[in-house]
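Message: I would value a second opinion on how I read folds in token form. Give me a protein, with the fold worked out from its sequence. Write it directly below this note and I will take it from there.
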Amino acid sequence: DVAAVELKGDRATDFGFNLGVLARPNDHFSLGAAYRHKVKQAFTGTADFNRLSTGNSQLDALVALTIPAGPVGVATEIEFPSLLSVGASYEWNEWTVAGQVDFHNWSSFDQLPLEFEGRPDLSSVVEENYSNSRIYRLGLERKVGERWALRGGYYYDETPAPAESVSPLLPDADRHGIALGFGFKSGHWSVDVANWYLIFKERSTEGVNR
């Protein structure tokens, strides 16, 4: 190891839009769809380089020619994916069942550029090449009397990250989610409590990771 670097990013703000529609063909059945547009954000910050002595003066001198000492401005740009969700629910007596599918347009996250101010030799573009993915959701509610409701849910989330792109940035994998909870309502007040358990599938870099 000849150096360490600490990256610090500033806040970034951008704007997008959401669209949604809900239809109730009858008192028991509901259909809905929602769309969130993709948002591209430009981030700036600093990269603080700290050279580490190797004990070899000649090697340290060579490192000093390449790696700067102290902070250097850094910038990147990330396009967060659009999201389309479609779902339906059905109510009968004390029961409600709901299902939903989310379509994530993760293919927009194809590259992660890192541009160091005044140092094109240190700048690089990390290939991500994420794929579009889906999330499947199912929920169930059972009303108990006038005030209480018991709830449970399950979902399956497909990872958009190919084996080539798995990294500490987004160490993602296919996962299952299980949720349990309850609700209490009295007059104008209501309280909802839920617990969510995630099960990540094992992930391998398959010998092709960059």
The first strand starts at residue 3 and ends at 9. Residues 54 and 142 are 65 Å apart (CA to CA). The chain is about 5% helix and 60% strand. Residues 57-66 form the longest helix (10 residues).
